[in-house]
């Protein structure tokens, strides 16, 4: 028996004398990857920045994903996503290598982009094949806001706003007689009185090759009419942005032309019962009223980001396109719905003022457009020049024809020096 026992004892002694070989410590679990947080750059004002932050918080709460909001400073390289206003379009056009088309990002991220934009929302954000290169999240069109209380005070029917510019002059005279020092004001003068008055009159401000041509007879007559209103103090000009909107919000101005999406900012206007109507038109122009233009902030994709960032950014774009968020963008920010289904849903959920604004916007956009895609107000150089020349007319320093001729010559010189700016979008 002994010869058998000794080998067994020897084997056991070897096993128990080398514990390191018998039981290795468990391997460490791989480190959990940090969540990818793409950036969204913007330069919204304080109120709209707060609304955007609330939407990002909702995105995080509902999906578990997040996105970092950063301020968009001039000269910065684009973030993963960039919410750019119409006045920043020239930055995209002049630096196309800094951006990539939205449809390309979504495709590489494996995220569907089944978005068929209405015709009025396509200029500047779709390419020649109809593919979406940027997302028009807060597009709007100019409308006429008016204070129904002011119309009542002037003895006017608050439910019957003026349809034409000629009719509007009579309203302004009565509003002035009723004690209003500012019967009418306008925000974004180039966008409203050059781009949109031209489009509604059927004489586009730009041609198919990207040249400026807003010095034809209908535009000259309109700007000259505004000059007479300025002399009569029917029309007051407060700046080249949306400075006039604050005067309307405070009840100082009785009527205002500005972006339809600003109704979201007028909900707490002092002493103002809000009325909204389509942008007036000139009824003596051949062919009748044509559609107004839609434009506004869009989301552009920055180039050169890691694939993981694009994948995370694509999830946020899909979130923006969900029916619930489309309704929120209309109700809280005043943007035009991106689809017909979203429009119907938004109309069914809006309060009265919001519905009026959306109805007026769509009424302004109805009809067959014959306008070029390029907007004078989208290019820094051309907008600044046009603003200067308009201000000179309305200050009685220049006649309308001379000012518009000069604006066209100066503006075409700017575009000639930078041909990339003649395109509505860079891809």
Descriptive account of the structure:
The structure is a single chain. By secondary structure, the protein is α/β, with parallel strands linked by helices. It folds into two domains: 39-139 and 295-362, Periplasmic binding protein-like II (D-Maltodextrin-Binding Protein, domain 2); 142-293 and 369-419, Periplasmic binding protein-like II (D-Maltodextrin-Binding Protein, domain 2, 3-Layer(aba) Sandwich). Helix content is 44%, strand content 10%. The strands form two sheets. The protein has a five-stranded mixed sheet. Strands 7-6-8-5-9 form a five-stranded mixed sheet. α3 (46-63) links the parallel β1 (39-42) and β2. α15 runs antiparallel to α16. It is globular. The N and C termini lie far apart (91 Å). Residues 1-23 have low confidence and may be disordered.
Layout of helices and strands, plus pairs?
Layout: H1 2-17, H2 19-22, E1 39-42, H3 46-63, E2 68-71, E3 81-84, H4 89-94, E4 99-100, H5 102-108, E5 142-147, H6 148-153, H7 165-177, E6 182-186, H8 189-200, H9 217-231, E7 235-236, H10 243-249, E8 253-259, E9 274-278, E10 298-302, H11 307-320, H12 323-333, H13 340-349, H14 352-365, H15 380-394, H16 400-417
Parallel strand pairs: 1-2, 1-3, 6-7, 6-8
Antiparallel strand pairs: 3-10, 4-10, 5-8, 5-9
């Amino acid at each position: 028996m002994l010869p058998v026992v000794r080998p067994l004892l020897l084997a056991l002694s070897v096993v128990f004398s080398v514990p390191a070989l018998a039981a290795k410590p468990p391997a460490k679990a791989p480190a959990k990857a940090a969540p990818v947080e793409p950036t969204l750059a913007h330069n919204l004002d304080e109120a709209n920045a707060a609304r955007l932050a609330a939407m990002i918080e909702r995105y995080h709460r509902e999906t578990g994903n997040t996105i970092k909001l950063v301020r968009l400073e001039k000269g910065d390289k684009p973030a993963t996503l960039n919410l750019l206003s119409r006045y920043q379009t020239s930055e995209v056009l002049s630096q196309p290598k800094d951006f990539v088309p939205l449809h390309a990002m979504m495709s590489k991220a494996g995220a569907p982009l089944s978005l068929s934009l209405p015709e009025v929302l396509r200029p500047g954000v779709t390419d020649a094949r109809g593919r979406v290169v940027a997302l028009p999240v807060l597009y709007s069109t100019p409308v006429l806001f008016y204070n129904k209380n002011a119309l009542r005070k002037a003895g006017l029917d608050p439910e019957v706003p003026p349809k034409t510019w000629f009719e509007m002059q009579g309203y302004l005279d009565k509003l002035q007689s009723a004690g209003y020092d500012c019967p009418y004001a306008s925000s974004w003068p180039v966008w409203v009185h050059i781009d949109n008055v031209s489009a509604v009159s059927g004489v586009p401000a730009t041609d198919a090759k990207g040249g400026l041509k807003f010095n034809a007879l209908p535009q000259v007559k309109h700007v000259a009419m505004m000059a007479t209103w300025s002399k009569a103090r029917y029309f007051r000009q407060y700046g080249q942005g949306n400075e006039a909107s604050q005067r309307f919000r405070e009840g100082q101005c009785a009527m205002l032309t500005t972006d339809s999406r600003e109704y979201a900012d007028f909900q707490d206007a002092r002493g103002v019962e809000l009325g909204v109507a389509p942008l007036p038109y000139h009824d003596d122009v051949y062919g009748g009223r044509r559609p107004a233009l839609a434009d506004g902030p869009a989301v552009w994709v920055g180039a050169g980001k890691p694939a993981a960032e694009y994948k995370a950014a694509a999830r946020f774009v899909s979130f923006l396109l969900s029916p619930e968020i489309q309704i929120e963008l209309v109700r809280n920010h005043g943007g035009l719905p991106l689809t017909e289904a979203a429009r119907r849903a938004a109309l069914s959920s809006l309060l009265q003022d919001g519905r009026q604004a959306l109805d007026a916007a769509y009424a302004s956009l109805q009809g067959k457009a014959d306008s070029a895609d390029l907007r004078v107000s989208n290019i820094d150089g051309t907008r600044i020049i046009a603003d200067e020349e308009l201000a000179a007319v309305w200050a009685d320093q220049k006649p309308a024809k001379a000012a518009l001729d000069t604006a066209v010559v100066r503006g075409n010189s700017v575009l000639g020096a930078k041909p990339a700016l003649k395109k509505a979008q860079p891809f």
